[in-house]
Amino acid sequence: MSKMSQKFSTITNIAKYTIADEVRQKSFLVMFVVSVIFVFLIRGCYQGNYMINGQELNAEAVVATVSKITFHIITVTLMLVTALLSMRVFKRDRDEGMQSCIFSKPITRMQYVMGKILGLWVLSSFFMFVLHAIIFLTVLLRLNIVMPGYLAASVLCSLNLLFVVIAVLLLSLMMPDIAAFLCVMGIGIISFAADWIFATTHIPLLHMQSGWTGWETIYYLWPKLSGLQHFASLFIVGFNGYPRFAYIYPLINVIFYCLILGMILFWRFRNEDII
Amino acid sequence: MIELKNVTKRYGTLVAVDDVSFSVKQGEYFALLGPNGAGKTTIVKMLLDFTQPTSGSLSVNGVSSTNVASRAAVGYLAENYHIPPYLSGWQYLQRCAELLNIKRSDAQEQCHRIVESIGMQGREHTKANTYSKGMIQRFGLGAALVGNPKLLILDEPTSGLDPIGSREIRQLLESLKSQGMTIFLNSHLLSEVEKICDNAAIINRGKLLVKDKISALVKESDSLEDVFVRYVKG
Question: What is the pLDDT of residue A244?
Fold first, then answer.
């Protein structure tokens, strides 16, 4: 086996163990089952006949709106679940002796951290994809409507989960696990709240101020988790004349944050003492 | 095989290891002795790059301990060993083999041999949360032996074992001697060290007090315990 493939094999092995260890946790199984039941309950929304005062509504438009709402609910829920899954990963490995076992072998800290990130990202993305796929199949089977953008949107939103994984892992090295979880949730809540405030204050009729303010700078530099999710949801309902390049910014923003936080995480973990 | 040159490790104002230098040759059974808090585990951690020295250098197999290649043929047994409770001893050994990129068929064969040598046949497929401390310690030693290492670093290997278990581990370590393995043993069980090791160093409050052949150390006194007490108490 070449050196490169050996390194990759080590990363995938660590990712595999991370997934196996998470799936074994009772809390994970409970979260997964509850989420699947919740999504199955939503299927009642897809009855096919939408009538108001005896007038039939455009089923496709209603389905697209309902699907968009469920898409957002699932994605936000998975961000929460991902943060919960990630927050105790390093501590558990340390307490169960896996870190000292791994690092007594010719395995670098970078390989270990990459394996952890990969495992958590794959697991949470798969979790989210399964829930989105249930909605996709429900719409397909009940209404015979194919929404090809739904699954593409799910894949795109997995970048938000990658951000959550890296951010929680990094912060869990610096503060108690629960504080790391709350901080990342705070970043997410601020992102969604800021987008909502920005959208309402930038309605042309209400738009009074001009010029670039400090708050706007912070708004644009803040992790655009909400923006990326909104961009992804446009794959479901269509872009409707929105210029696609305007929505590329949240994508670039989140990728940039993943890279920067990832580098800080590698650097920080390299200097960690293994207990 | 192992070389420490003027190694110092400070935690804030506390000096855990103070300008320690010594070497261990290939095939040697070496014991690092010292009371609790002497700095023995810190030295082991620096050898495995779990923590970096404040100054000085350490090398394993001729490679700096900060280089991952230095751990290519090293087995390690930590003090108070842990195994994830949901894994069986067998699954744990398999994981260790996979982490070393050992082929599946070779790994199976090696794990069978190791389970036999640590005397855990029949218990290897039960979950680790049913194991006693001694059983976990045995599987820990088994995990250290995966990949046929040339150097074993053992931190209190018989900690938590009953006298029979201790004897079995000791016999296993003695049998490894014939295979040319080097052992770096961290212990304060002096009777055990006296029976297994060729050379020993005594460390106290981070300072290396003496390093010599056990036969030379014991020559002056009745037992290694007397030597130890004499050096540590000054």
Answer: 64
- Within 8 A of B91 by CB-CB distance, chain A residues are none
Asked whether the beta carbons of B171 and B192 are under 8 A apart, the reply is no
Instruction: Give chain A positions within 8 Å (CB) of B100.
Output: 105-106
A39-51 pLDDT, tens digit each: 888 777 776 667 7
> Phi and psi at residue B211, in whole multiples of 5°?
-145, 125
Residue type, A270: R
Query: CA–CA separation, B200 vs A246, rounded Å?
Result: 70
Task: Give the separation between CA B234 and CA B228, rounded to whole angstroms.
Answer: 10
Q: Do A274 and B86 touch (CB under 8 A)?
A: no
Give the pLDDT confidence of A152-200 residue by residue, as tens digits: 999 999 999 999 999 999 999 999 999 999 999 999 999 999 988 887 7
- What is the count of residue pairs from A and B with beta carbons less than 8 Å apart? 65
Q: B113, B94, B107, B171: which is closest to A101 by C-alpha?
A: B94
CB A253 within 8 A of CB A223: yes
**What's the pLDDT at A145?**
82
Taking only the tens place, the pLDDT of each residue in A65-116 is 888 888 999 999 999 999 999 999 999 999 998 999 999 999 999 999 999 9
Which two tokens mark A231? Answer: 């961009």
